[in-house]
């Protein structure tokens, strides 16, 4: 008889739902801003976060939690899916007025253009190294991790993007305005790679569990796993650079 087989093979998983999760969150936020003055507005915000829990991840109705060892919840203590250590956001608005009234034509063409930018950057989010199949035989195929590796032990790719906007209003006559607009998202076309996101957070397949039996000495094991060579290799990315032009009529 296989010593790892269920005592009663015909009895499935017994699910327990409770609110016994624990978490620790430390955060620091620093911000600075300059109100609109002389045509310039500026705001800078930085956030540092450190978050740990024992599977406080979202529990979706009808979907089992990701607890791997219900007899020892401490074994699931690790980084929370909200543990993004660093995040920086900077935004500016500047109104261009390079010409005075002595250059009336140039003033009409090039003054009062507004340039706005938003730069956002963040460190990678936690990735949970999971294994396909059901190695711990609890009828839950989403909670099996790479042996010896804590939950959310790996960090996914970071993210950075710059948005740019250029606008100008033209007063053609009373109560009739034209607004020209040019916008660019991910201005520098950065390759922001991404890992898979599920209702329970960020996940990544670390290996493939292969059913079968293996014997080491007198001990029989129900199977083994092989490492996935593409682990932590993103297969998708966020949107590339996008540019859009617009013309609005206001009356």
Biggest sheet, in brief? Answer: 8 strands, antiparallel
- Compute the CA-based radius of gyration: 27 Å
Spans of at least 5 consecutive residues with low confidence: none
How many domains? The number is: 1
Secondary-structure element sequence? Answer: EEEEHEEEEEEEEEEE
DSSP strand content: over 45%
**General shape:** elongated
Instruction: Look at the structure and give the mean pLDDT.
Output: 81
Number of helices: 1
Distance between the termini: 83 Å
Structural class category: mainly beta
Helicity level: under 10%
Number of strands: 15
Describe the structure.
The protein has one domain. It is mainly beta and 251 residues long. Strand 8 (159-173) and strand 9 form a beta hairpin. It starts with 22 loop residues before the first strand and ends with a strand. The mean pLDDT is 81. It has one helix and 15 strands, in the order E-E-E-E-H-E-E-E-E-E-E-E-E-E-E-E.
């Amino acid at each position: 008889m296989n010593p790892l087989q269920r005592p009663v093979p015909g009895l499935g998983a017994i699910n327990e739902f409770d609110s016994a999760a624990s978490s620790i969150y430390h955060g620091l936020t620093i911000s600075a801003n300059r109100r609109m003055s002389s045509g310039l507005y500026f705001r800078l915000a930085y956030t540092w976060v450190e978050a740990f829990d024992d599977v406080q991840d979202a529990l979706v109705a009808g979907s089992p939690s990701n607890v791997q060892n219900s007899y020892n919840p401490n074994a699931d203590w690790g980084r929370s899916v909200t543990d993004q250590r660093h995040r920086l956001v900077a935004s500016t608005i500047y109104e261009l007025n390079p010409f005075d009234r002595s250059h009336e034509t140039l003033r009409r063409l090039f003054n009062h253009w507004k340039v706005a930018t938003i730069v956002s950057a963040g460190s990678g989010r936690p990735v949970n190294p999971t294994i396909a199949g059901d190695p711990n035989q609890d009828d839950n195929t989403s909670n099996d991790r790479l042996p010896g590796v804590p939950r959310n032990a790996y960090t996914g790719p970071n993210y950075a993007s710059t948005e740019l906007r250029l606008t100008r209003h033209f007063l053609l006559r009373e109560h009739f305005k034209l607004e020209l607009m040019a916008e660019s998202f991910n201005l520098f076309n950065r390759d922001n790679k991404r890992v898979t996101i599920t209702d329970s957070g960020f996940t990544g397949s670390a290996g493939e569990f292969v059913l079968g039996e293996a014997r080491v000495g007198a001990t029989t094991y129900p199977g083994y796993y092989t490492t996935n060579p593409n682990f932590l290799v993103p297969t998708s990315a966020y949107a590339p650079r996008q540019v859009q032009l617009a013309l609005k009529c206001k009356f």
